[in-house]
Each structure stands twice: as C-alpha cells, then as structure tokens.
Amino acid sequence: MARGTIFERYGGFATAGKIVMAFYDRILDSDITGPYFDDVDMPRLMDHQTKFVASVMGGPASYTDEMLEQLHRRLNVTNEAFDEMARLFRETLEEFAMAEEDVETLAREINSRRDVIVSAD
Question: Looking at residue 68, what is its pLDDT?
Fold first, then answer.
C-alpha cells in the first residue's frame, strides 16, 4: 500500500509546479483550450494552478468549489473544453510516470469539479 499523499510521494510543490508547466504547454497548444488564455496573466495563473494541483494531490493548499466556480464563471467554459483539459491533464500526469492508480485518483478529482467549472455549451 502506498504511503503518504500523492503530493508527498511525488515531491511536493516542486513536482506540482513542473506538472503545471508541462500541462499548460499542452493547454496553450490546443485549438480548443488555448484561446481561453489569450489575455491571461500566465505567471499569476501558473502560481494559482500550482497551488490548486498541489491541493488536488493532497497538499496543503486548498480551493473550495465556490472559489473555482467564481474564477471560471466569466470564461464560459464548455464541456468540450473541459474534456480536452481533462485529457491533457491525464497525459501530463502519465508523462511524469505516475502510477496508474494515482493518475486515476487525480483525474477523478478534476472530473468531480466539472459542474463548478463548465458554464456554457
């Protein structure tokens, strides 16, 4: 049985930051998700996303669903964009050689937030 949280097992904030950087390389290259970030302060976003991913991994930072909904409401995120984001997130985690069980756990955590992130279709 694995010990500690995913955050602890994979190197904490250092790894969360690397995952976020690799993930956003994919997100920005996607024709579906890239346009959502045309006018975004990327360094600020990367900082927030590192804390969010760390939180999803079982780390110390935390975001409530209300905060996520408020942050995403004006973006009019579609189900198609959410599906693309979830696919790219999974690919990124696999690139970091995470155990399949951990990839599934994190993918499930992200998918559980669909209703607070998607606001258009």
Answer: 87
Which residue ranges are tagged as binding site for heme? 48, 72
| CA distances (Å), origin 96, targets 55, 62, 99, 103, 106 | 18, 22, 9, 10, 13
- Give pLDDT tens digits for 4-54: 999 999 999 999 999 999 999 999 999 999 999 999 999 999 999 999 999
DSSP for residue 63: -
Annotated binding site: 48, 72
DSSP-derived letter for residue 60 is: S
Position 79, amino acid: N
Structure tokens at 17: 């930051």
DSSP structural state of residue 4: S
Q: In sequence order, which ranges of the chain are alpha helices (DSSP H)?
A: 6-9, 12-29, 42-56, 65-72, 79-95, 100-111, 114-117
Q: What is the dihedral of CA 5, 7, 12, 18, to 10 degrees?
A: 160
- Nearest CA to 83 among 103, 43, 112, 111? 111
